[in-house]
Design brief:
The complex is a heterodimer of chains A (92) and B (273). Chain A is built from 6 helices and no strands. Chain A has 92 residues and is mainly α. A 5-stranded parallel β-sheet of chain B has the order 3-2-4-1-5, with helices on both faces. Chain B has a 5-stranded mixed β-sheet with strand order 6-7-10-8-9. Classes of the chains: A mainly alpha (92), B alpha/beta (273). Chain A binds chain B through residues 1-2, 5, 8-13, 17-18, 42, 45, 47, 50-51, 54-58, 60-70, 74, 76-77, and chain B through 15-19, 37-42, 44-46, 49, 56, 58, 61, 67-68, 71, 92-93, 99-103, 146-149, 152-153, 166-167, 170, 173-174, 176, 179, 211-214, 233-234.
């Protein structure tokens, strides 16, 4: 596992690490010996720089639910509009 | 590789390293193939270290492409591996079954085809929201809607309870092809909300932290400022109650008729503050 990812994972799951003072955090980061770029990114808590260093995706999508799906029992807005248009044309 | 494929959809939680359950992690580690849909690029890299065959679902997203098509392609890709007899794990950020269409659907379809399929819960953005904002949904009640769905349909909301609108960054998008909607759409959302809330009502834009080195966004603003605010795919809008709960006097009387007065010891029996 990359040292940077391993460090982030440790911070995530270890309450003591997540509560480090700024000085303790800087010491812990320097002790990783991950090179200047990653060290600088970690010290600045710079997500974009870390991502560049580790080769992560540039853009992440996180939408997983549509506002409406094909299975809901109710009419969709489009269907309502279609019906209104039909009604309107019938009235004409 | 076994001959009878299986599927489990697990939640990774929101924060790298902090939220994943031991059980979900073991599913990821033991799967033949893992499909990942997470919200943070570093979380995706973290997953890739848990299993040698982690396939991101991110390439299925594309600006200008219908998200209905994206979700269907995710489902097809996962099911294809299950049908090949593999132990398949879908790793979704947060909780795999909260505001997530594909995980529910793919579990349903896999079961319908006779495969073992189930879901393991995870810590969702909603869970983080309660912790970070200090909200107990049981105190006044809490209503959740997908923001666009809230706009498209006539919903009855209770302004004496919390209202939480998800995916507010694309509120009003009917094309399912955009990854942001402009201020004009947000103005329509505000127009809808002011039917129940004052324009100066304080609302909160919330984004959960995904790394242990970052902080959640918890930006308070008057409702009127929502139109000009920076909203992203991960932004959630929280509206605290704007009025006190109204006592249901007739129901309280009916309940009182069932119980001796000495047995009633509830704040609901005292006059509202």
């Amino acid at each position: 596992m990359s040292n940077v990812i391993q460090f982030l994972e440790s911070m995530g799951k270890n309450a003591a690490l997540s509560d480090m003072s700024p000085e303790q955090y800087a010491t812990a980061v320097k002790a990783l010996n991950v090179g200047d770029v990653a060290e600088h990114a970690l010290l600045n808590r710079d997500h974009a720089a870390l991502n560049d260093f580790l080769g992560g995706r540039m853009k992440m999508m996180m939408m997983l639910v549509p506002a409406e799906d094909d299975e809901q029992g109710e009419k969709k807005p489009d269907e309502d509009e279609d019906k209104e248009q039909q009604d309107s044309s019938q009235a004409n | 590789m076994g001959t009878s494929g299986s599927l489990v959809c697990v939640g990774t939680g929101m924060m790298l390293g902090a939220h994943i359950s031991p059980r979900s992690r073991s599913h990821i580690e033991q799967a033949d193939v893992v499909f990942a849909a997470v919200s943070d690029s570093l979380v995706e890299l973290w997953l890739q270290e848990m299993n040698k065959d982690v396939r991101s679902l991110q390439p299925f997203y594309s600006e200008g492409k219908s998200r209905h098509e994206t979700y269907q392609q995710m489902i097809d890709a996962i099911l294809q591996e299950v049908r090949l007899g593999k132990r398949v794990c879908g790793a979704f950020y947060g909780h795999p079954g909260v505001f997530a269409f594909a995980p529910h659907k793919v579990v349903e379809l896999a079961r319908a085809e006779g495969f073992a399929a189930h879901m393991e819960p995870g810590i969702s953005a909603e869970d983080c929201l309660y912790a970070d904002l200090g909200i107990d949904p049981g105190r006044f009640g809490c209503q959740h809607f997908e923001a666009s769905q809230f706009m498209f349909y006539q919903r009855r909301i209770d302004p004496s309870a919390y209202l939480v609108l998800w995916q507010v960054g694309i509120a009003g998008d009917r094309s399912y092809r955009r990854y942001t909607t402009e201020a004009a759409y947000r103005q329509l959302l505000v127009d809808l909300l002011v039917e129940d809330y004052p324009l100066n009502h304080e609302v909160i834009v919330y984004e959960a932290a995904t790394l242990p080195i970052s902080s959640p966004r918890m930006q308070k603003m008057p409702l009127s400022d929502l139109v000009g605010s920076q909203l992203y795919l991960q932004s959630t809008l929280v509206l605290p109650p704007c009025q006190a709960m109204l006592r249901n006097e007739s129901m309280l009387l009916r309940i009182a008729a069932l119980e001796p007065l000495s047995e009633i010891d509830s704040p609901a029996t005292s006059k509202q503050q």
